[in-house]
Amino acid sequence: MTGVGAPGPDDRGPAPAFRAGIVDVAAPVVIVGAALAIAPHPGWIGFEQERSGVPALTGFTRDEVRRVTAGILSDLVVGPPSFAVSIDGRPVLDAAERAHMADVRRLLLAFGAVVALAFVALVTVLVPDRRQPLAWRGVSRGATVLAVVIAVAGAWVLISFDTAFVAFHLVTFPQGDFAFDPLTQRLVQLFPERFWSDAAVAMGLLLLAMPGATAALAERRAGRLSRATGA
Protein backbone atom coordinates (compact mmCIF):
# COMPACT_ATOMS: atom_id res chain seq x y z
CA MET A 1 0.00 0.00 0.00
CA THR A 2 1.39 3.39 -0.99
CA GLY A 3 1.63 5.93 1.78
CA VAL A 4 0.84 9.61 1.51
CA GLY A 5 3.66 11.41 -0.31
CA ALA A 6 5.33 8.11 -1.23
CA PRO A 7 6.16 7.19 -4.82
CA GLY A 8 3.43 5.50 -6.81
CA PRO A 9 3.53 1.99 -8.30
CA ASP A 10 6.16 0.79 -10.75
CA ASP A 11 5.84 2.65 -14.05
CA ARG A 12 6.91 -0.27 -16.22
CA GLY A 13 4.47 -1.99 -18.58
CA PRO A 14 2.30 -1.04 -21.57
CA ALA A 15 -0.32 1.04 -19.75
CA PRO A 16 2.10 3.55 -18.18
CA ALA A 17 4.08 3.64 -21.43
CA PHE A 18 0.89 4.45 -23.36
CA ARG A 19 0.03 7.24 -20.94
CA ALA A 20 3.56 8.60 -21.26
CA GLY A 21 3.10 8.54 -25.03
CA ILE A 22 0.02 10.72 -24.61
CA VAL A 23 2.17 13.15 -22.63
CA ASP A 24 4.81 13.08 -25.38
CA VAL A 25 2.24 14.47 -27.82
CA ALA A 26 0.17 16.66 -25.52
CA ALA A 27 3.00 18.53 -23.79
CA PRO A 28 4.40 20.31 -26.88
CA VAL A 29 0.90 21.28 -28.03
CA VAL A 30 0.16 22.85 -24.65
CA ILE A 31 3.51 24.67 -24.65
CA VAL A 32 2.81 26.16 -28.10
CA GLY A 33 -0.67 27.17 -26.97
CA ALA A 34 0.76 28.87 -23.88
CA ALA A 35 3.32 30.72 -25.98
CA LEU A 36 0.64 31.96 -28.37
CA ALA A 37 -1.40 33.17 -25.42
CA ILE A 38 1.57 35.05 -23.97
CA ALA A 39 3.12 36.50 -27.14
CA PRO A 40 0.53 38.93 -28.58
CA HIS A 41 0.73 41.50 -25.79
CA PRO A 42 -0.75 44.85 -26.95
CA GLY A 43 2.24 46.76 -25.61
CA TRP A 44 4.66 44.63 -27.60
CA ILE A 45 2.53 44.84 -30.74
CA GLY A 46 2.39 48.63 -30.48
CA PHE A 47 6.15 48.82 -29.95
CA GLU A 48 6.83 46.66 -33.02
CA GLN A 49 4.37 48.62 -35.14
CA GLU A 50 6.20 51.84 -34.32
CA ARG A 51 9.56 50.19 -35.05
CA SER A 52 8.13 49.05 -38.38
CA GLY A 53 6.95 52.56 -39.30
CA VAL A 54 3.26 51.70 -39.32
CA PRO A 55 2.02 55.29 -38.72
CA ALA A 56 3.94 56.45 -41.80
CA LEU A 57 2.76 53.47 -43.87
CA THR A 58 -0.90 53.95 -42.98
CA GLY A 59 -1.05 57.72 -42.62
CA PHE A 60 -2.72 57.18 -39.24
CA THR A 61 -1.68 58.84 -36.03
CA ARG A 62 -0.09 56.74 -33.31
CA ASP A 63 -3.36 56.70 -31.35
CA GLU A 64 -5.33 55.73 -34.45
CA VAL A 65 -2.96 52.84 -35.14
CA ARG A 66 -3.42 51.60 -31.59
CA ARG A 67 -7.21 51.96 -31.70
CA VAL A 68 -7.51 50.20 -35.06
CA THR A 69 -5.17 47.40 -33.98
CA ALA A 70 -7.04 46.94 -30.70
CA GLY A 71 -10.32 46.68 -32.63
CA ILE A 72 -8.93 44.06 -35.01
CA LEU A 73 -7.42 42.00 -32.19
CA SER A 74 -10.63 42.21 -30.17
CA ASP A 75 -12.66 40.89 -33.10
CA LEU A 76 -10.04 38.19 -33.64
CA VAL A 77 -9.93 36.91 -30.07
CA VAL A 78 -13.26 37.88 -28.51
CA GLY A 79 -15.52 38.43 -31.52
CA PRO A 80 -17.86 38.92 -33.17
CA PRO A 81 -15.52 38.63 -36.19
CA SER A 82 -16.84 41.61 -38.13
CA PHE A 83 -13.45 43.38 -38.40
CA ALA A 84 -15.42 46.52 -39.24
CA VAL A 85 -13.23 48.98 -37.34
CA SER A 86 -13.34 52.42 -38.94
CA ILE A 87 -11.75 55.86 -38.81
CA ASP A 88 -13.92 58.90 -39.46
CA GLY A 89 -16.68 56.57 -40.64
CA ARG A 90 -14.50 54.85 -43.25
CA PRO A 91 -13.82 51.10 -42.84
CA VAL A 92 -10.12 50.39 -42.38
CA LEU A 93 -10.23 46.90 -43.91
CA ASP A 94 -11.85 46.04 -47.22
CA ALA A 95 -13.99 42.94 -47.86
CA ALA A 96 -11.04 40.72 -48.82
CA GLU A 97 -9.08 41.72 -45.74
CA ARG A 98 -12.07 41.10 -43.48
CA ALA A 99 -12.60 37.68 -45.06
CA HIS A 100 -8.97 36.79 -44.45
CA MET A 101 -9.16 37.83 -40.82
CA ALA A 102 -12.28 35.70 -40.42
CA ASP A 103 -10.24 32.77 -41.75
CA VAL A 104 -7.49 33.58 -39.25
CA ARG A 105 -10.04 33.52 -36.43
CA ARG A 106 -11.38 30.14 -37.55
CA LEU A 107 -7.83 28.78 -37.60
CA LEU A 108 -7.13 30.12 -34.11
CA LEU A 109 -10.36 28.66 -32.74
CA ALA A 110 -9.55 25.27 -34.25
CA PHE A 111 -6.05 25.33 -32.78
CA GLY A 112 -7.47 26.50 -29.46
CA ALA A 113 -9.73 23.44 -29.42
CA VAL A 114 -6.70 21.20 -30.07
CA VAL A 115 -4.78 22.89 -27.24
CA ALA A 116 -7.75 22.44 -24.89
CA LEU A 117 -7.96 18.72 -25.70
CA ALA A 118 -4.20 18.37 -25.25
CA PHE A 119 -4.39 20.16 -21.89
CA VAL A 120 -7.18 17.85 -20.70
CA ALA A 121 -5.17 14.82 -21.83
CA LEU A 122 -2.05 16.12 -20.09
CA VAL A 123 -3.86 16.76 -16.81
CA THR A 124 -5.67 13.42 -17.04
CA VAL A 125 -2.33 11.61 -17.21
CA LEU A 126 -0.14 13.75 -14.97
CA VAL A 127 -2.50 14.04 -12.00
CA PRO A 128 -2.76 10.29 -11.30
CA ASP A 129 0.77 9.60 -12.59
CA ARG A 130 2.47 12.56 -10.94
CA ARG A 131 4.73 10.18 -8.96
CA GLN A 132 5.67 8.17 -12.05
CA PRO A 133 9.09 8.95 -13.57
CA LEU A 134 7.88 7.73 -16.97
CA ALA A 135 5.16 10.38 -17.16
CA TRP A 136 7.60 13.22 -16.44
CA ARG A 137 10.07 11.80 -18.94
CA GLY A 138 7.24 12.01 -21.45
CA VAL A 139 6.93 15.72 -20.69
CA SER A 140 10.68 16.11 -21.08
CA ARG A 141 10.76 14.21 -24.39
CA GLY A 142 7.86 16.16 -25.86
CA ALA A 143 9.36 19.50 -24.83
CA THR A 144 12.78 18.53 -26.17
CA VAL A 145 11.36 17.47 -29.54
CA LEU A 146 9.48 20.77 -29.74
CA ALA A 147 12.67 22.73 -29.02
CA VAL A 148 14.52 20.86 -31.78
CA VAL A 149 11.72 21.44 -34.28
CA ILE A 150 11.60 25.14 -33.40
CA ALA A 151 15.39 25.43 -33.74
CA VAL A 152 15.30 23.89 -37.23
CA ALA A 153 12.29 25.94 -38.31
CA GLY A 154 13.84 29.07 -36.82
CA ALA A 155 17.03 28.56 -38.80
CA TRP A 156 14.95 28.24 -41.98
CA VAL A 157 13.04 31.42 -41.16
CA LEU A 158 16.25 33.35 -40.51
CA ILE A 159 17.80 32.14 -43.77
CA SER A 160 14.73 32.63 -45.96
CA PHE A 161 11.96 34.52 -44.21
CA ASP A 162 9.95 35.27 -47.38
CA THR A 163 9.88 31.62 -48.44
CA ALA A 164 8.96 30.44 -44.96
CA PHE A 165 6.25 33.09 -44.65
CA VAL A 166 4.63 32.14 -47.96
CA ALA A 167 4.92 28.41 -47.20
CA PHE A 168 3.22 28.88 -43.83
CA HIS A 169 0.34 30.76 -45.44
CA LEU A 170 -0.03 28.24 -48.25
CA VAL A 171 -0.41 25.49 -45.66
CA THR A 172 -2.74 27.35 -43.32
CA PHE A 173 -4.71 29.26 -45.99
CA PRO A 174 -4.76 26.96 -49.05
CA GLN A 175 -7.49 29.07 -50.61
CA GLY A 176 -4.80 31.70 -51.24
CA ASP A 177 -6.62 34.73 -49.79
CA PHE A 178 -3.54 36.15 -48.07
CA ALA A 179 -1.93 38.26 -50.80
CA PHE A 180 -2.57 41.98 -50.30
CA ASP A 181 -1.23 45.17 -51.88
CA PRO A 182 0.96 47.05 -49.38
CA LEU A 183 0.33 50.28 -51.27
CA THR A 184 -3.45 50.25 -50.91
CA GLN A 185 -4.57 47.70 -48.33
CA ARG A 186 -4.36 48.45 -44.64
CA LEU A 187 -3.85 44.96 -43.26
CA VAL A 188 -0.30 44.67 -44.60
CA GLN A 189 0.36 48.29 -43.69
CA LEU A 190 -0.69 47.68 -40.09
CA PHE A 191 1.32 44.45 -39.96
CA PRO A 192 4.16 44.84 -42.47
CA GLU A 193 6.93 42.38 -43.27
CA ARG A 194 9.32 43.83 -40.69
CA PHE A 195 6.67 43.38 -38.01
CA TRP A 196 6.31 39.69 -38.90
CA SER A 197 10.04 39.06 -39.15
CA ASP A 198 10.55 40.56 -35.67
CA ALA A 199 7.54 38.61 -34.39
CA ALA A 200 8.97 35.38 -35.80
CA VAL A 201 12.26 35.96 -33.97
CA ALA A 202 10.50 36.80 -30.69
CA MET A 203 8.17 33.81 -30.97
CA GLY A 204 11.06 31.54 -31.85
CA LEU A 205 13.03 32.61 -28.78
CA LEU A 206 9.97 32.13 -26.58
CA LEU A 207 9.36 28.68 -28.07
CA LEU A 208 12.96 27.73 -27.37
CA ALA A 209 12.97 29.04 -23.81
CA MET A 210 9.64 27.54 -22.73
CA PRO A 211 10.23 23.93 -23.83
CA GLY A 212 13.85 24.10 -22.70
CA ALA A 213 12.82 25.10 -19.19
CA THR A 214 9.96 22.59 -19.21
CA ALA A 215 12.25 19.73 -20.28
CA ALA A 216 14.81 20.57 -17.60
CA LEU A 217 12.23 20.76 -14.81
CA ALA A 218 10.44 17.59 -15.93
CA GLU A 219 13.72 15.67 -16.18
CA ARG A 220 14.69 16.82 -12.70
CA ARG A 221 11.31 15.66 -11.38
CA ALA A 222 11.70 12.28 -13.13
CA GLY A 223 15.19 11.88 -11.69
CA ARG A 224 14.02 12.53 -8.15
CA LEU A 225 11.19 10.01 -8.51
CA SER A 226 13.53 7.43 -10.05
CA ARG A 227 15.94 7.73 -7.14
CA ALA A 228 13.04 7.42 -4.68
CA THR A 229 11.64 4.29 -6.33
CA GLY A 230 14.89 2.79 -7.60
CA ALA A 231 13.37 2.78 -11.11
Describe the structure.
With 231 residues, the chain is an all-alpha fold. It has one domain (14-229). Helix content is 73%, strand content 2%. The protein has helices at residues 14-38, 42-51, 54-58, 62-77, 95-126, 133-159, 161-172, 186-190, 193-229; strands at 86-87, 90-91. Strands 1-2 form a two-stranded antiparallel ribbon. Strand 1 and strand 2 form a beta hairpin. The radius of gyration is 22 Å and the shape is elongated. Residues 1-14 have low confidence and may be disordered.
Question: Which descriptors apply to this entry?
Answer:
two-stranded antiparallel ribbon, disordered N terminus, 2 strands, mainly alpha, 9 helices, about 230 residues, about 75% helix
User: What number is the mean pLDDT?
Assistant: 85
Strand content: under 5%
- Which blocks of ≥5 consecutive residues have pLDDT under 50? 1-14
Widest sheet, order of strands: 1-2
The profile of the biggest β sheet is: 2 strands, antiparallel
What's the short version?
By secondary structure, this protein is an all-alpha fold.
Map the helices and strands:
Blueprint (H helix, E strand, L loop, with lengths): L13 H25 L3 H10 L2 H5 L3 H16 L8 E2 L2 E2 L3 H32 L6 H27 L1 H12 L13 H5 L2 H37 L2
Antiparallel strand pairs: 1-2
Helix pairs in contact: 1-5, 1-6, 1-9, 2-4, 6-7, 6-9
